[in-house]
Amino acid sequence: MNLHRHHHGGVSFSALLFIILSVFAPLGHGSSSPILSELNGPKLRHSRLFKSALQHQVSDEHLSDLWEPLSNQGWKPFVESTVTSSSMPESSGFIQVFLDGGLNQQRMGICDAVAIAKILNATLVIPYLEVNPVWQDTSTFEDIFDVDHFVNILKDDISIIRELPDEYAWSTREYYASAIRSTRVKNAPLHASLNWYLENVYPVLESYGIAAISPFSHRLAFDNMPIEIQRLRCKVNFEALVFVPHVRSLGEALVSRLRYPIVESIDAVSGTKYIRQVVDTKSGHGAGKFVSLHLRFDKMAAHSACDFGGGKAEKLALAKYRQTIWQGRVMNSRFTDEELRNQGRCPLTPEEIGLLLAALGFDNNTRLYLASHKVRIYTLHFDSILYY
Asked: Where is the signal peptide (predicted)?
C-alpha cells in the first residue's frame, strides 16, 4: 500500500517513516529524540493476519465494487417541508452562539443554532467561530460559507442578521470573556431538550432581548424533536451551508492533486530534474482513486487510558499529553489494556487500520494518504502499515 502525506503530491511510505522518526519528540521539537533508541521496540501484534492479508487475492469484480458509490439503501432527502410558508411572527429577540471545535463540530452547531432560533422564534446572528486551539484558524463564518446563500435559503424559516443592531453592539465575545453576564447562557447541558431551551433561554430573551449561548457544541438533542425541526436541521446542512467559491476551488484542486499527484523525475539522458503530473499510474478499477485516513494520532489517542505497544518513548509522550492537555483527567484505569480493548474503549492502532483496509479489499497498490495535524504518538507503528 502506497502511503503519502498531503504535501507536494505525496512521499513514499519509507520516506514518511524516516521523516517522522527524525522529528518525533514528545510535546516538543527537541534535537534529540528518545525514540531513536527504541526502533525495535514495537512489535506487530497480528503478524499472522498480516501475512494472510498479503497472500489474499482479490477478484476484479470485488475491486470494481470497492470503488463504486454506495447505494442509497432506501434513504431519501429529508429537507422538503410539508408546512406551507407564511409570514413569520414578530421575533422574540436575538440569539448568538459561539462555536468551538473543528469545522465539522461547528457545522453541526450551525444546524443546531438555526433549529433553536426556530424553536424560540428568535432572530439568529451569524454564528461566531472560535479560534481552534489546534489549528489556530481565525476564519470567520463569512470566510468559509456563502452568507447570502445561507440567509436566502432559510428566509422562510427564520430571520438571520449579519450583525447586531447598535443597541446590542456591546454583546461580543470579549464582553462575555471578561465577566459573568446575565445575557450569557453557559449551562446548557449536552443534548438538551426542546423544553430546556423554552424554560431556560426564552426567559432571557424576554428580559433582555438577547441571549448568547456559549459553549454550544452538541447542545441540542437529536431524539424527541418535532419532525419540522429535524427537517430544518437537514436543510441547513445539505442546502444552506455552501462554501464560498475560493474554498470550493481549493477543494477541487486538492482532490485533483490527490488523484493525480505531482512527482519529480529525472531525464535519463541529460540528468535534468523536472516535475510531472501522474495521470495513469494505475490502470483499471483503481485509476485516479485514493484512500484518505485520519488516524487521530494526536491528543485524542492520549484521551484513552490505553497502551499502544510503542515502548517507553510512546508511553512518555502519552503521559505528557494526559498531564498537560487533558490536565490529569485521564487517570489510570482499573482495567488492563487487554480488557479495555475487548470493551471497545481503545482507538484502532495503525496496524489494525491496515488489517481493516485489507479486509475491505484494498491491496498494496492503493494510493493511501494520511490526514493529520502533528503526528506525535504511535510513531513507530507506521512500520506496521509499511509492512502491509
From this structure: 1-30
CA distance 172 to 193: 26
CA 201, CA 95: separation in Å to the nearest integer?
9
Structural domain contains residue 129: yes
Residue 145 near residue 100, CB atoms below 8 Å: no
Do the beta carbons of residue 347 and residue 306 sit within 8 Å? yes
Amino acid at position 327, single letter:
Q
Q: What is the pLDDT of residues 49-93, one digit of tens each?
A: 777 776 776 777 777 788 887 777 777 777 666 555 567 888 999
Q: Which residues, at least 6 apart from 77, have a Cβ–Cβ distance to it below 8 Å?
A: 234, 238
76 within some domain: no
Cell for 385? 502499515
CATH of the domain at 127: 3.40.50
Q: Is residue 195 part of a domain?
A: yes
* b/e per residue 22-58 (b: at least 16 CB within 10 A): eebbbbeeeeebbbeeeeeebebeeeebbeebeeeee
Which residues share a beta bridge with 324? none
- Domain end, chosen from 194, 222, 243, is at 243
Whole-angstrom CA distances from 68 to 62, 289, 356 are 10, 11, 18
- 277 CB contacts (<8 Å, ≥6 apart)? 260, 261, 262, 263
Q: What is the pLDDT of residues 276-325, one digit of tens each?
A: 666 654 544 456 788 888 776 566 677 787 877 667 777 787 787 777 77
pTM: 0.74
Asked if residues 235 and 79 have their Cβ atoms less than 8 Å apart, the reply is yes
Range of the domain at 356: 2-67+250-387
Query: Which of 177, 212, 243 finishes a domain?
Result: 243
Is beta strand 273-277 parallel, antiparallel or unpaired with respect to 262-266?
A: antiparallel
